Amino acid sequence: MARRGGGCCPPMDLMRSEAMQLVQVIIPTESAHITVSYLGDLGLLQLKDLNADKSPFQRTYAAQIKRCGEMARKLRFFKEQMSKAGISTPSAQLTEIPLDFDDLERKHGELEAELAEVNANNEKLQRTYNELLEYSTVLQKAGVFFYLAQRSAAAQQREMEANQSGESSLESPLLEQEILTDASKQVKLGSLSGLVPKEKAMAFERILFRSTRGNIFLRQESVDEPVTDPVSGEKVAKNAFVIFYSGDRAKAKILKICDAFNANRYPFPEDVSKQLHTVQEVSAKLSELKATIDMGLAHRDNILKSIASEFENWNRLANKEKSIYHTLNMLSVDVTKKCLVGEGWSPVFAATQIQDTLQRATLDSKSQVGSIFQVLDTKESPPTYFQTNKFTSAFQEIVDAYGVAKYQEANPGVFTIVTFPFLFAVMFGDWGHGICLLVATLYLIIREKKLASQKLGDIMEMMFGGRYVIMMMSLFSIYTGLVYNEFFSVPFELFGKSAYACRDPSCVDAATEGLLKVRRTYPFGVDPVWHGSRSELPFLNSLKMKMSILLGVAQMNLGIVISYFNAKFFRNSVNVWYQFVPQLIFLNSLFGYLSVLIIIKWCTGAKADLYHTMIYMFLSPTDELGENQLFPGQKTVQLVLLLLALVAVPWMLIPKPFFLKMEHERRHEGHQYAMLQSAYESVVADLGDHEDSNHHEEFEFSEVFVHQLIHTIEFVLGAVSNTASYLRLWALSLAHSELSSVFYDKVLLLTWGYNNIFIRIIGIAIFIAATVGVLLVMETLSAFLHALRLHWVEFQNKFYEGDGYKFAPFSFALIGDEED
Predict the structure, then answer these.
(1) What mean pLDDT do residues 666-689 have?
(2) What's the half-sphere exposure (Cβ side, CA atoms, 13 Å) at 631?
(3) How many C-beta atoms lie closer than 10 Å to residue 56's C-beta?
(4) Of 322, 385, 341, 334, which Cα lies nearest the Cα of 49?
(5) What is the pTM for the complete model shown?
């Protein structure tokens, strides 16, 4: 299947994956970096790891990867600092200015050191500023304490002087005279002031009282606004306190308790003049520090803005360099250590582009020796590569989620583009709901360029990625909605008048017996007269159930036919005659025949019971059909089809294992004769290959037979269960129609019958919410999942192996997507 691509891009072909080849590239060491860089820009070569037995530290370019990791750490540091400062990176286009990695590494080191120094200085200044703010608060609160205490003391002094006559009252101290006269017995009190967290204030007071046995005087007052803690830098609600104590032991205990409760202490001068001087000094220092901090922050912001303007380029270069050295570590070093040897997969059409890229890299690196490109022979299974665009990629992802196609087997993605949205629409048929989905999808498609550059949420990201799938689903839903003649469950006479009319005015709610056919058959879809009649449910049930069987049998036959093309492509005649043919006969002898009976019954208008016909085809094949006969000779046809179905089972089961055994023995003998007739050089060259093939081709007949038995049983039972599984198309279509009808009749029409405007508005709101939440979200998801199951299980298991692996080329574009 090798094809030659014309021009830069090969023709689109989704049916079979691109023809691949195993290639070897030999690159001189001096041009290795630029060569791998150019190959990453091209993105059409998947290199194999030839150093898988080595640890990351034993590889050639481990030191360079370590440097890239260090640069990535610095970039993360810059990004964190920009995030803290509220500076965002501009969303401008990435410039292609060449950047030298060594110069950039040195520049990053200088910027990191400068930022670290600025941050350290700013932290010190901010801590000092916060301490001064707390000190200012303490001076204010403690000043009030001392002012009130001095005023109280002065009042007491004046009162005592007024009472010097010696007359004592009951309220006078007992030892007043002694205290006044004996100055040596007066005690000198010390004081401590500061701030304590408000949540710890009660415990702080309690511990102080207990530890000093009440020999202190404590005064607390809450600060009006939270203050910034100098240590943690967080806003904390605090209380200002002043403690009066006596003795050094009490002071030591108080200091320890303050440390334990994170209470910051500040000195408070007792002299009023010193207090005023201290307040002025603290205010001046606060002003100076504020100006200094603002200048430091402005300098830091200037540095970060200069970094932000180049951050995307630097980040891109760091990721690019790291990926280049990771790729270089996958190459093996030549014995002379002058060349690097790499092996990998590339599409056949890309051979010329890769060779041109290698030649350009040699010229740009000014290497004396060019790179060598050669194709290798191999028996390995190549990777699977489908070239997709923004329309087909989502459909291909649906298939790949089940399993990546084996190399060049038929790709279900081609058929999924049509069958997936169509089966969804069969379950979701309502052209009103389809228009709502289409409008939402067109919004995503029209704004796709803008939305693609934004970070969306998980659910929105999935919807945006599958926007073209949803668009196809909505278009098919409009089509099936027109077929069902449902617009939010309301029928319309879009394609002409109804073919039926009432026999008399009393048959408005009658069954079809009360209707007369007065015109030609309704030209497209379901006649609107069926909606709302008593016969609506039986008629639509019968229609949708039979339609589901027809669609299911058609899609399963398509899967079996694709298995034929797979067998012809891989030249596997055993699968053609002993898998495709009996499977086609078995499926169509039973369910293909049922589909033909359905079409005949529709065309002739017969009243035959198809359930009875199919059941007694097995139970009593020789009995007369009677009124269930649809065409002459039906009994003979049924006997022949039943016999063919019975013959198809052993036809699938028995011959294939024996033919596989004969083929293995013939191939094995051919290998032996080839070995005897080969020359010595051929034996030496192919010895490993022959040993590997003989080792992998150990044939166990019993194992193959059991596998074939399982496959046969699975197909026979699956033909029944898969056909029944397609009845979900009928069930979900009926559920969607009935839910839509309930919301319209029991919510919208019921509330519209009231003359109250508020009830009508509430009814409309409930109808819209139910339609969007249940029918446009939950029912969409339900129909999507059921369509997914029908494709993965009922359709793809007829032909799709899905045991391949994706082509994952070394590409800078893919690395950028992964980083995002």
Answers:
(1) 47
(2) 13
(3) 11
(4) 341
(5) 0.79
